[in-house]
Each structure stands twice: as C-alpha cells, then as structure tokens.
Write a structure and sequence with these properties.
Elements lengths: L2 H6 L22 H13 L10 H24 L7 H27 L2 H9 L2 H14 L8
Helix pairs in contact: 3-4, 4-5, 4-6
Length: about 150
C-alpha cells in the first residue's frame, strides 16, 4: 500500500468530514443518508499532497491534521439511526487512532527521519482495513480506498 493510500482512509478515513449534523426536525439519518453524509465527510479531507518524503509531508500534515480532527467530530455529531450508532462510533474511534499515529508521523517527519516516518505511517494499515469494513457497514462508499 502506498503512503498516500495509507493516509486516504485514515482516513481516515478517516478516514477524513464536513457534512451536516443530522436530518430535518432532529430526525435520525436513514442508512442511505448516513452513507452519503459520511462519504462527503471522508472526501472533504485532502491527502493527495503527501509524497512519503518527510520534508514535504511535515508541512502537508500541518494542514491535514486539523481538517481530519474536524472531520472526526463531524462524524461523531451525525444523528444516525439507532442501529448505526455503534458503527458510527467505531468508525470515529478508528479515525481517532489513525489521527494519533498521523500526529506522531508528523513529528517524525519534522525531524527528517525518512525511515522512521515511513514505518510510523505503515502502522495505519491495519486501521485502514478496519475503517473500510466500518465504512461499508455505514454505506459510506466514498470512504473506501480505490
């Protein structure tokens, strides 16, 4: 998996995340609406500027990390159907775990240690796979790696 692909889900999905916070009149989002909203949130976090080179990525991550944090919060705030709450929360928790790794990776990137940086980024891969599964359960195809 390439470095950029690893961060795409974090992206996670990571995940990701700038969608609305629920349906009209405080009604929970349907399954389809949840999938659409979560997909839009995922797609709002831009990881394409990452190259795997610490000198480049340190600056890129400085911009990405706050967007990713906001995206995670947006997912948490979605008012979803009761049956989807556990998966929504697990998806956001997964993104929090990826965020912690990404923050550590940024610190390493700032030091210029290419090997340590890439090793840290690789730690997101198991979380990426879990994120894909959770995104699928939420109907959020826009969060899946291509």
């Amino acid at each position: 998996m390439t470095l950029t692909r690893s961060f795409l889900l974090a992206p996670l999905c990571l995940l990701l995340f700038a969608a609305g916070c629920g349906g009209d009149d405080n009604q929970a989002l349907s399954y389809d609406e949840t999938g659409t909203e979560v997909s839009e949130i995922c797609q709002s976090v831009e990881f394409s500027g990452l190259t795997g080179e610490p000198e480049n990525d340190a600056a890129q991550l400085e911009v990405i990390i706050p967007d990713f944090e906001a995206a995670i919060e947006d997912v948490r705030e979605l008012e979803v159907d009761e049956e989807l709450e556990t998966d929504r929360d697990a998806f956001a928790d997964n993104a929090d775990e990826q965020l912690a790794i990404i923050q550590e990776a940024q610190t390493i990137a700032e030091s210029g240690d290419k090997r340590a940086y890439r090793e840290k980024v690789e730690e997101t891969q198991p979380l990426d796979r879990e994120s894909d599964l959770l995104a699928s359960r939420l109907g959020a195809s826009g969060c899946l790696e291509d």
